[in-house]
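Table S2 (text version). Query chain:
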Amino acid sequence: MSDASTLSPLRIDGQLWFNRGEKGYLGGKRIELLQQIEATGSISRAAKTIGLSYKAAWDAVDAMNNLSERPLVTRAAGGAKGGGTRLTDFGREMLNVWQRMQHE
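Corresponding C-alpha cell output:
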C-alpha cells in the first residue's frame, strides 16, 4: 500500500463538448479552429495553423453553423476591401462560454 504523501495529486480529466441532440458540434479541434479564425481572419490560415485541410476546416465550420441556433462563422467574399472569414458576435460569445466552462 502506498503512503498518501508519495501519490501524485488527483486531477480531473476529460473533454468538454457542446452537443445538439446526439451530435457534438463545439469542442476539441473545432474550438481551436474558431480561435484561429478569430486570430487570423482566414479559414485557410486557421486550418494550416491547427493542421487541418482547408476542406476539413470548411466542413467543420459548415457543421457548426448548421447545428448552432445562429451562425458562428461568416465569410466575406474578396474584392477591393478583401475577403475573409470571421466569427459572428454569437460565435465569439459561444467561444467565450466554452472557454469559461473549460476553465472551471
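Notes on Table S2: The helical segments are 28-40, 43-50, 54-67, 89-103. Strands lie at 17-20, 23-27, 73-76, 84-87.
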